[in-house]
Amino acid sequence: KPASLALQPAITPELLQGRVHLKCSYSPPTPGAPVQYRVLWARLSSSGRREQVHQETTARPFSYVEMDGAQLRLGDTVFCTVTAFRRGSPEQQALPEDSKGFYAGIKFLPESLEIAEDGKEHVLTVLSTVPIACPGQDNSCKITLQLRTEDLGRQAPGPPDIALSACQVDLLPGPCSGGSCAAATVTVTAVTDLAQDGSRASRVSARPLAPRALLWTAHTPRDVKVTVRDLPTGNCYSFTDPHIITFDGWRYDSYKVGTFLLCGSVSRPFEVHVRQWDCGGHRSATTCNCGVAAR
Predict the structure, then answer these.
(1) Looking at domain 106-229, which of 3.40.50.920, 2.60.40.10, 2.60.120.10, 3.40.190.10 is its CATH number?
(2) Is the distance from CB of 83 to CB of 12 less than 8 angstroms?
(3) Other C-beta atoms lying within 10 Å of the C-beta of residue 204
(4) What angle do CA 171, 44, 207 make, to 5 degrees?
(5) Which residues is 58 bridged to in the sheet?
(6) Could you report the per-residue pLDDT of 17-40, keeping only the tens digit for each?
(7) What does R_g of the chain's alpha carbons equal in angstroms?
(8) Contacts of 268 (CB under 8 A, 6+ apart)
(9) What's 10-104's CATH class?
(10) Which end is more exposed in the chain, N or C (fewer Cβ atoms within 10 Å of the end residue's Cβ)?
């Protein structure tokens, strides 16, 4: 009966002779045993099926495949399947073992965001899971990403629901660790529109900007979906001679002449001042709003 040998195949990215490769590494079952390995490389198709792209038989505990932009492209999720057998006896083989899927390309972390219209900044990381190759010897060894936002499901044009801290970011080459070979951050903030328009969805997309390396030219990274949650908006009023209604619904009148603080925030530099003048003359003690200043 075939056995599982706990080969534990795993895929890591590597730069070989300036070109992006994926390496499938696996553990030999016992040191010095005359074992060979059949390694199948496959990519996940858009329909969710595995398509074989490369196969080899080797005695080494690793196998390489190049991200050539044709058989294997950025944006693919790649698997390697390893089967061990005794040299000269391919019919006596162990059970094939799968690696975890390795996404090769640019992605956002987190992959989705839910934020509120509260002015807070949320950090979005954009990273490459594969090394960035330098096509020449000059100093332009980077991938520049153009960032865009788009409101989803909006019928008529209007102000955007989210704002980014930058329109483009640079991915600079560095050592690969923790699933990232190059990373940059950008902050996302919900636009406070003071409209009761419910939760709205937007997306952030990244596109490589005129890369010289052919591998990156056709790469379309996955978008990140951002849901903006409405927060209830407060209102306060001062009108006619002046009747005042506060944020929490209290009502009273103010008949004094002068300049007054109508409202102010305790957490940010926001104030509204009103100026009231006598508008009743000799008949009644009445004042009216005649000016307003907001900071």
Answers:
(1) 2.60.40.10
(2) no
(3) 20
(4) 30
(5) 37
(6) 888 999 999 987 776 677 889 999
(7) 31
(8) none
(9) mainly beta
(10) N
